[in-house]
Specification:
The protein has helices at 2-25, 50-64, 78-86, 97-105, 158-169, 184-192, 208-216, 226-235, 273-285, 287-293, 316-325, and strands spanning 37-42, 68-73, 92-96, 118-134, 149-151, 178-180, 198-203, 219-221, 240-244, 256-268. It has 327 residues and is of the alpha/beta class. It folds into two domains: 37-125 and 263-325, 3-Layer(aba) Sandwich (D-Maltodextrin-Binding Protein, domain 2); 127-261, 3-Layer(aba) Sandwich (D-Maltodextrin-Binding Protein, domain 2). Strands 1, 2, 3, 4, 5, 6, 7, 8, 9 and 10 form a ten-stranded mixed sheet that branches.
Length: 327
């Protein structure tokens, strides 16, 4: 056994020396002097938008951008992503614009614990507030959610925090309804079982969770009145009024008036300027491919990538890319 181990060590050393020598000779087949930067990226629930789009980004970066390899991970969303970045368990993530701003300023869920090292690579697409109710629930307006058990999102998610802010802006406090903290995946099954009558889903559209839910049980998305939209955008300035076009989902005959915020691609200030630049360039060089993976990639544009980015918190590498490519 000892002879075998010694022989193995000798063979390993010999192979290592040979590889080093070949690398030094400049052989294209064995050249090993190109270092690869490995990055971990946080996304969201598998039935949301962050997960498929984040995996598409990771695929593009790993296969089509030199010296970069990115692994995307499913998480509970914005808040967990930023917490994991704080602990240096993630290098990149997708997060809601309101959560990013709260983390930078040390407010909301980050009260007293700001994240000054957070940087934004780009704004991606609108995240639409979709208030989904069972079709036969009799609920036609947001005010009728009082006294109901409403799914607000996974514990610690940006969806949950924003949902509570939305309800408060509607004049519905936590004491006026029962918030249910479960993920999109769990919400899909719970709504199918009719355990709950309503869910607030804040995501890019079409959202896979809603598309799948519509195949299992009849549901509707509430449309907001002009006064509701006006009061929401006044109370929560990070929101903007949007229309969800008819036929966004199967069986949706009419457009839905609602509000939206932005999804952002974020990183740590530790990420080098050159890598940040390459990541941004990788997305735009392969945007046509990304559009085939998820419809929300169609919203990514040079005209909007700096929308809503807190002053002074754009990553320098991303800012250089934007300044070189803006029209």
């Amino acid at each position: 056994m000892i002879r075998f181990i010694n022989l193995f060590i000798l063979v390993f050393v010999a192979l290592t020396l040979c590889t080093s020598l070949v690398a030094q000779t400049g052989s294209a087949a064995y050249k090993i002097d190109r270092l690869v930067t490995f990055l971990a990226m946080g996304t969201g629930a598998t039935t949301g938008t962050y997960f498929p789009l984040g995996n598409a980004f990771a695929n593009v970066w790993s296969t089509r951008v030199e010296k970069v390899s990115v692994m995307a991970h499913s998480t509970s969303g914005s808040i967990e992503n930023i917490q994991l970045m704080r602990r240096r368990e993630l290098d990149l993530a997708i997060a809601q614009s309101d959560v990013v701003t709260a983390a930078i300023n040390g407010t909301g869920s980050f009260l007293g614990h700001p994240c000054p090292n957070l940087r934004v690579l780009m704004s991606l697409y609108p995240e639409v507030v979709q208030i989904v109710v069972l079709a036969d629930s009799g609920i036609e307006t947001v005010s009728q959610l009082r006294g109901q058990r409403v799914i607000v999102g996974a514990p610690g998610s940006g969806n949950a925090i924003t949902s509570l802010e939305l309800m408060a802006a509607f004049g519905i406090d936590k004491a006026d309804f029962e918030p249910v903290y479960i993920s999109y995946d769990e919400a899909l099954q719970a709504m199918e079982r009719r355990d709950y009558t309503a869910a607030i889903v804040i995501a890019g559209t079409p959202t896979r969770m809603i598309s799948e839910l519509k195949l299992r049980v009849p549901v509707r998305i509430l449309t907001l009145t002009p006064s509701e939209t006006a009061s929401l955008t006044a109370a929560l300035p990070y929101l903007a009024a949007v229309n969800l076009p008819a036929a966004t989902y199967q069986g949706q005959a009419e457009p839905v008036t609602t509000v939206a915020l932005m999804a952002m691609l974020i990183a740590s200030s530790r990420l080098s300027d050159d890598i940040a630049y390459s990541l941004c360039r990788g997305i735009f060089d392969h945007l046509d491919y990304l559009k085939t993976i998820h419809e929300r990639a169609r919203d990514v544009s040079l005209e909007t990538i700096m929308n809503g980015v807190p002053q002074g918190y754009a990553h320098p590498g991303a800012l250089r890319f934007y300044q070189e490519h803006k029209k």
